[in-house]
Amino acid sequence: MDKNITLINNTIAFVKETLKDAEGGHDWFHIERVWKNTRTIAESESCNMLVAELGALLHDIADAKFHNGDEEAGPALAREFLTSQHVDEEVIYQVEMIIRHVSFGGGNTPATFKSPELSVVQDADRLDAMGAIGIARAFHYGGHKNRQLYNPGIPPDMTMSKEKYRKSNAPTLNHFYEKLLLLKDLMNTETGRRMASRRHAFMQTYLIEFLSEWEGG
């Protein structure tokens, strides 16, 4: 068997075991969807497929919001695993950088690292925060954090810093305006933009219906 296929299979097994008790919006199935999106987008991009696939599979291996805000927990765990698999140092470094820079983080933080592989994985991850699945994930996480569905008296905050964004406990519907509806225009790749367009439209339709029903419509 090709050594890269073996590495991907070993990585899948590692991620499944590590995230077996994860919150439903950030579990193995989220990783699998992002991985599938990554492979679809990468077909039209000039990038290192192995780095992109490993970045997708490991991007949420230790999400900071579930590890007391520790943003180095993910890169460190990924490096430990990939080192155990005898992966080249340059590949490990590129995967670490994807993990460090893939997140939205409030959308107001300037990018300090760029690579073709990060662009692909970032689009793939953002797509999973959009559309029908994105809506389901938003409300699942909101329930996990015991947040209100919606509160007309608490408007969205469009100027949040990365730190404030991570600590926000605003109603879940605010998240649509603070992140989800912004993602379409933040896509890096043509394929990502095309895939995002449909999901964005679905979210807009959903919000119209939600707000209508809220008012008794």
UniProtKB/TrEMBL annotation:
Pfam families: HD. SUPFAM superfamilies: HD-domain/PDEase-like (SSF109604). Residues 27-130 form the HD domain. InterPro entries: HD/PDEase_dom (IPR003607), HD_domain (IPR006674). CDD domains: HDc (cd00077). PROSITE patterns: HD. This is Protein containing HD superfamily phosphodieaserase, includes HD domain of RNase Y. It comes from Lentimicrobium saccharophilum. The lineage of its organism: Bacteria, Pseudomonadati, Bacteroidota, Bacteroidia, Bacteroidales.
